[in-house]
Amino acid sequence: MEVSGDSDNLKNRPLTPLRILRGLIILLIFLSTAFTFLIYFAPPFALALRLLSVHQSRKSISFIFGYWLALWPYLFETINRTTVVFSGDTLPVVEKRVLLIANHRTEVDWMYLWNIALRKGCLGYIKYVLKSSLMRLPIFGWGFHVLEFIPVERKREVDEPVMLQMLSTFKDPREPLWLALFPEGTDFTEEKCKRSQKFAAEAGLPTLSNVLLPKTRGFTVCLEALHNSLDAVYDLTIAYKPRCPSFMDNVFGTDPSEVHIHVKRVLAKEIPASEAESSAWLMDSFESKDKLLSDFNAQGQFPNPRPEEELSILKCIATFAVIVSLTVLFLYLTLYSHSFLKVYVGLSFTYLSFATYYKFRPSPSVGSCKESKSH
């Protein structure tokens, strides 16, 4: 979706041969590093260590794979030179357990939440409620499983038991958790918007032009399961200039020029506990988002923009250097070292495929459970 105002001066960058070459190199780096990190680090930390302590397993995974996830915000802001403009409430660093809700403009909205989490030191602890079909993506599906993303079929009778079971493992208030939810359930298109408006008119609900009607049950399930352990809800509204990007736009650096993220911070205790009242609260939130996006389309910005710390170029270089160096080392050892490593890679590949397909996560032994509860 294009916006007016000063976005007229922002044009998508041309897809030059240099951008194509750079994008292919970046894609190769991201895929090879993801594959290597998952193959070498997932079995010892997501399997062996988890048998001893879920808490220590999650802590280790958040550190290792949070380091890898940082590649994406650095790609967006440092390499692609995309400007991320924050507005609204300032987020405190001390909050480690939050529920994030956002509008769903495009297939890559969820990636830009990493830009917030990186700045707040919680990148490795961010988890998403996402379509189960994404779990079948090569390599990335393994990562979604290891990071304990919550897959849904978008069928209430199927999804609710799965969500409640997984959310029940995240109740410990001492464990950091950033849980991200897109209540619309799908990305915005004009065709979907017309269907949503038709349904709203028939059901006596608000007619929205820039967002779809939210599906409230996923939100209320998250609140029911986690309400007593959450610090806050971050109500995010996302917009782009000059237009909404695709995944490949990010890879090649053609779009967007700017990402605008408006933040409304709400203490968890201020959100009603009952399903009916929390559903109404969510509907009011999306009415506000619709108004914010209408104003953004007219004015080119959200109200109350505020400065945020820029990502360090030195940290970007250091992160890329460490991750690429480890990947090269592991690939070299796999190809030219003892056959034991080749067997390990084969077993790891088999385990990740099996665990992701069958949604398998080991539970700690009884003795270890007692130890993990005392952390």
UniProtKB/TrEMBL annotation:
The chain crosses the membrane at residues 20-48, 313-335, 341-360. Keywords: Acyltransferase, Membrane, Transferase, Transmembrane, Transmembrane helix. Pathway: Lipid metabolism; Phospholipid metabolism; CDP-diacylglycerol biosynthesis; CDP-diacylglycerol from sn-glycerol 3-phosphate: step 2/3. Residues 98-220 form the Phospholipid/glycerol acyltransferase domain. GO terms for cellular component: endomembrane system. Signal peptide: none annotated. The keyword Ion transport does not apply. Its EC number is 2.3.1.51. One of its GO terms (biological process) is CDP-diacylglycerol biosynthetic process. Coiled coil: none annotated. It catalyses: a 1-acyl-sn-glycero-3-phosphate + an acyl-CoA = a 1,2-diacyl-sn-glycero-3-phosphate + CoA. It holds the Pfam family Acyltransf_C. One of its GO terms (molecular function) is 1-acylglycerol-3-phosphate O-acyltransferase activity. SUPFAM superfamilies: Glycerol-3-phosphate (1)-acyltransferase. The keyword Signal does not apply. Belongs to the 1-acyl-sn-glycerol-3-phosphate acyltransferase family. This is 1-acylglycerol-3-phosphate O-acyltransferase. The lineage of its organism: Eukaryota, Viridiplantae, Streptophyta, Embryophyta, Tracheophyta.
